[in-house]
Structure formats: C-alpha cells, structure tokens
Amino acid sequence: MFRRLFWIMLALAVPTVLVNGMFADLLGYTLPDVPGVEWVSPVLGTVIYLWGGRPFLTGAVGELRSRKPGMMVLIGMAITVAFVASLGASLGLFSHELDFWWELALLVVIMLLGHWLEMRSLAQTSSALDSLAALLPDEAERVEGNQVVTVAPADLRLGDVVIVRPGGRVPADGEVIDGGADVDESMITGESRPVPRVVGDQVVAGTVATDNALRVRVSAVGQDTALAGIQRLVAEAQASSSRAQLLADKAAGWLFWYAVIAAAITAVVWVSFGVPQSALVRAITVLVIACPHALGLAIPLVVSISTERAARGGVLVKDRGALERMRVVDTVLFDKTGTLTKGEPALTGVTGTGGYENEELLRLAAAAEAESEHPLARAIVAAADHRGLQAPPAANFRAATAVGVHATVDGHEVQVGGPALLSQHGAEPLAATASWGQAGATVLHVIIDGQVAGAVALADEVREESRQAVEALHQLGIRVVMTTGDAEPVARAVAAELGIDQVFAQVRPEDKSEKVAQLQHEGRTVAMVGDGVNDAPALAQAEVGIAIGAGTDVAIASAGVILASDDPRSVLSVIQLSRAGYRKMKQNLWWAAGYNIAAVPLAAGVLAPVGFVLPMSVGAILMSLSTIVVALNAQLLRRLDLSPEASTATARGAPQVNPARTALTVTDATSP
After folding, report:
1. Model confidence, pTM
2. Which structural domain range is residue 182 located in?
3. 335: annotated active-site residue
4. pLDDT digits over 215-232, tens only?
5. Is residue 432 part of a domain?
6. One of 99, 160, 184, 335 is an active-site residue; which one?
7. DSSP string covering 379-432, please?
8. 368 and 441, same structural domain?
9. Which of these three, 202, 232, 262, is where a domain ends?
C-alpha cells in the first residue's frame, strides 16, 4: 500500500510543487500565464491530502484514542494544518504566506517513502500459529474393522485406532495399543534422544516414530491435544507481551506536545501585541514546521540499512521493536538441543575389551547398525565412516525396540544395545562406562558371540561456536541461562562444559515460557534463543525471541529475530546491530529534532523584537539540510561487519563487565 501510494503521490506532487506560487517565489521563477494555473496546486494538493495522507490520518485517530500520540499524530497534525491553511490561502481567507501546498505535497511523499522503506525491510513471515498446524500429518491411517482407511486428522474421533508407520508423524494424542518404537519427541519436549514407547505408553500429536510401526488409540483430538496447548500458549504470549514504545514514536510524541504548546504560546503572545493576523500566520507556520522531513526518514533509513547489513551477516529482522530491545538485554536464555548443541547424537567414546581394539569394535558395531534407521545407529555408522573404517556386509538383521539390534557380521553374532540387552545376557556394564553415564551420554554395549566386547558412548555434541558465544556474552556482562527437556545429568554436563550460569532441566513446553516469565519477574530483560516447536511459547514470551533459522517454521514465526545459520555466535551480531542501530537512530533524531528545537522558536517570532522572523523559505532550506545529514549519517551503518567471527571479536575487545554470576544452578522442573 505504501509503495503504491508513494509512486502515485510522487507523480501528483511534481506538478503540485512546480506550479505553486509560493514555491515559484522561493526559487525565483515565473509561472506560465495559463488560465487556471493557480488552481492546479489546490486541486492536486487536496487529492494528495485526502488520498495519500489517509494512512497517517487514520493512524493518528488510533493513537489519539489510545492516548499515545506518536509519529502518526505528528504527521497527521502537520498535513492537516498545512491543508487547512493552504486551502484558506487559496480561497482568500488567510494570508498568502500560508500557501503551503508544495510543503504539504513533499511532506506526504517523503513520509510515504519512509514508511515504505521501513515496512519493506521488516516484511513479516508466516504466522507461528499457522506453522504449528503444519506439524500434523496431512493424512492419518484409521483402522476400521479389517480395513485401513486414509482420513484427515481433523476427522479422527476419541477411541479411533490409527497406524503410525516408521518415519511417520503421530496424528493425534493417544495410547500405544500395539507395537513399540523409539519416538522422536524433541519438537515437543526438547529431549534430544528418541524415547521408547511401547504398549500402554502415551504418544503426542506431531511426534515421529523413528524405527517401527505403532498402533495408537486416540485419546485427545482438536483443542485437547498437547500441540493445541502449545498453540494457545504462543497466542497468549504474543497477545500479552508488553512492547515498549519505539524510539521514533517517543520522539514524535514529544515533538507533538512541543509544537502544540509552542503554537499556543505564539498565538497568545502575538494577539497580546495586537496583531491577530500575524498570530494566525505564526501559529500555523509553527505547526507545519514541527513535522520535519528528516524525522520521517531518520528511523526508516537506519532500519532499512541495518536490516540489509544484518541479512548479509546471517541475521534476519522481523520485528523492529525486538531489535531495539536487544541492546538492553541482560540475560540470554538458550535452548540446548539444536542451539548450543547440534541436536543429533555423535560418538563421544569407544572402548573395547576381550581382545577387541576400539576401531575393530566400532567397525563391527557399524556393520550391525547399518540397516537401522535409529538416530543412534546412524551416529555409529557416521563415526565409522569419518574414521575411514570399512564396515563389512551384515546378514540376518533384526531390531527390537528398547533392546537393540542383532546381525551376523563376518561369521560373528553381533548385538548392539542398551541395559535391556545386557540384562538378557546376564551381564554387567563395563566399569569404563560409568563416567559416560554420569556425563549424560547414552551408553550402548557391543556383544559379540554372547560376550561383552566393548561399549560406545553417544551424546548430543556441543558446538565449538557455543563456547565462544558464552565467553563473549560474559565479556559483555550478560548472564547466560540454558533450558532443556533433557535430564539433569545431561544438562549439568553441557552447562559445565560451556560455563553456563544457570540451567533449567527437564522442562516441558509450558514450563519454558514460565521460566522466561520467572526470569522477567526477577527483573531481567530476556532474549530467548531456540529452534523447536517446544521453544515457540518462550520465544513469544521473551522481550526478544531469536530463532535458529535451521529450526522449525513455528520457532521462526514466533521470533522477532531469525538467525539464518545455526551459529549461536550470531546472537552477538544481533546485540552489536541493536546497539549500533540505536546509536544511529538517536543521532538522527537529534538532527531531526534539533531542526525543530531551533526552527520552531524562530518561526514563532521569538526574535521579532530585533526585526527577524524566520521566513518559510529559510525554514525549507534548513529542513532539506537536516534530511541530507540524516541520510548521510545512516549510510555509515554500511561499514558494520556483522559476521559471527567479527561480532565475537568485537565483544571480546569490549571493556570487561562483571555480570552478577553465581555458581552453576541447576533446576529440575520435576522437583517440588
């Protein structure tokens, strides 16, 4: 809308300005002697005011109703006063000095340009609430007697039995009545490891059966599902989050009252001196000058340039308010899985016994796991490939949920599995694996020909960039907190490795938003960084929601800032951009407001006793100079390097700030 209006109003503004008598006098040229030429500006100016000025007038009404005058009120007042004064001058009711048609046209065009630039740079992405619905499968397989019928998830009813194939999503909350599978619930709980679900266990809509098929009896549909509960949490957080008034609106509100009071004082003073005609001219001039062109471009130019630079540095800005608030954040709350860690298991340890070397053990384990689709199996195979180990072909592959796999490799019976597998063989875990379990790793033992031959450890791998990000945030005096659905040992191990200040462990989605609210209640300004569905309510609740771009659409749609990469150091880029952009905004507002502070008293006639009253022509020149200075100052932001490496180096070079840090605190959400 603003783009279309800008081009139309620009086309109308050119003749409005060029054939305006006041503008012609200002530049010293003569208008053509054509009948009716003096009515071109009034007619086109009226169209510009009513059509091009409509968004500002309706916005002004909204601000006045909410009793929060801001940019729209200031613009609406200026163009309305300019229109009324110019119309009165054209009809001979007011002095010809109040012929502001050219000023009205330029003001509307420049304000439309500013709003177009701002909105283009902050184009919104899809709604978080719409993205949540996309987690459900398009179809569900419902068992009807001896047949399986494909239906939409919305058609499921309580008590229906559905089949969930390997790799498929659960269409509704329910109870497993047949089969068993490791279910990936990370999008709901944040738990990085698939969770075994067997007969009698509950499964949640949107989660994924990773390896085997399940039969599930539906126990909740529609608004009663856990996914719908998350949707409600996101909606409530988005609706209730307090959004601080933007800097430009605050400045515009101050200028509005400044102009109104100055105009009133001007009128009273000139009337008291017995010159009511001058009182009207001076008061109207003050009100028109009160809305400088520079103010309309000061913020949009900074936003447009800074968001462009941000995108090149891998930071996508959706919400300008979130970007402004990032500069005052004192606590960054990271989700663990997929943010501080890679979100997938990786081999962290291997030990062989009974004559088997580590690499030989890993080679045989990878061969046995080669046909499995389980995430832990894929991690073992990937580790063997990374080490250049050639896994031999396996035969007679079998997989048992919550137990492990069995295969024949090079004539040996190879089994890989967890505690249940050891129990079947009456064996005890290897002593060397005790420290792995304490650190939160998943331990799988390898049994060859009935004997324990060794074990492997797998854990969600911590990103190297996470260490640098936490260190740099501490350098800036920012407290770092981690939240995770993982168990306390896993959370404690990751936190200790990274130097995290505080941890919330075993946190479900509804609790994540509560943890953000808890930190806010303690007086902290929180930025939440996450990537999953389970993070969406917390992203919406935080002062600044930052989504990892590699994450889900829901997390992205719930956040105000999106990191195009999965590099947590990009959080430092957001902080740097926020602080640099805010500095430029303040500088530009001082330039724009400085024009007002100087021009309004002069236009009011404060120097009239010494024979000087600011002519409108001089005011126009000052207004143009102010706009040029603002534009040039905003361009300096193009020198900002927002790459994660540069932002981290900048943070490390900042003066040391001592945050209020304490010994690591781990809170288990399941504890009283």
Report:
1. 0.62
2. 133-232
3. yes
4. 999 988 877 776 676 666
5. yes
6. 335
7. HHHHHHHHTT--PPPEEEEEEETTTEEEEEETTEEEEEE-HHHHHHHT----GG
8. yes
9. 232
